[in-house]
Amino acid sequence: MSKRIRFHLDENVDPAIALGLRRYGIDVTITSEAGLRGQTDEAQLEFIQQSQKPHA
What we know:
- This protein is of the alpha+beta class and 56 residues long.
- Helix content is 38%, strand content 14%.
């Protein structure tokens, strides 16, 4: 697992915040880019957990 700071922002957060964080090298995903718009919190959490797994 990476020691870098990572965030996943849901659709209620302005995408400009993600852009600002990315400028500082922070790994950020947002709901719309991940194709999760309108999905439940549980679906968001599942996405986060899957993205934390090391890639083979």
